[in-house]
Each structure stands twice: as C-alpha cells, then as structure tokens.
Amino acid sequence: MKYMMFVCSDTEPDTDTAQLPDIEAWVTRNDEAGRRLDGSVLAPTTASTTVRVRDGRLLVSDGPFTESKEVILGFDLLECADLDEAIEVARSHPMARMGRIELRPLAELDD
What we know:
The structure is a single chain. By secondary structure, this protein is of the alpha+beta class. Helices cover 21% and strands 35% of the residues. It has one domain (2-105): 2-Layer Sandwich (Alpha-Beta Plaits). The two termini are 18 Å apart. This is YCII-related domain-containing protein.
C-alpha cells in the first residue's frame, strides 16, 4: 500500500536530549528496502504560490494562503505492507521527534 508521508514542523518538539536519528541513514535504509519511493525537502513557505478559482476567476497569491506555525517541510512517498509498517518507518524519521509526521494512504480511484 502506498502512503504519502508529510514531514511537518511542530510548535512542541520532543525535549529528549538523546541524539536524533541520522536523516541520510534513514533515507538509505528505506530506499534500499524499497519502502521509500520518492521524497524531497520543500522550499520555504515564502516561495509558495496559492492558486484558487472563484466564480470562474483565477486568483493567484504569493506565499501561503494562511499563516500557520506548523508547515509541511517535505514529503516521502512510501510503499509499505500496511499502516503498521508505515508507522514504524515514520517513527524512525528525525522529524518525528523535532516535528510531526502525517501518514495518509493514497486513495485508489476507480477508472
């Protein structure tokens, strides 16, 4: 099953002083196991563009549409046997401690 893993900031990071997992090791381990299909860090929210259509009119604005203290910093596309495996993959990501991880299964659309 495929999961989109959103890597997000959080206003309340973990206070544990233990060393964070190494992100490069996390990427290598999950790439080699075939669990991580793709992923990237995103540019800062100041580089974002919001696109909307209202009453047939295109509305484009610079930056995020809303101000938020918690933002999506990056993503990883995972292929896991089930949600339990996806949770274990997310659990070992450094941002699970410094931020938060959102897992969302990809919907299977009917043709």
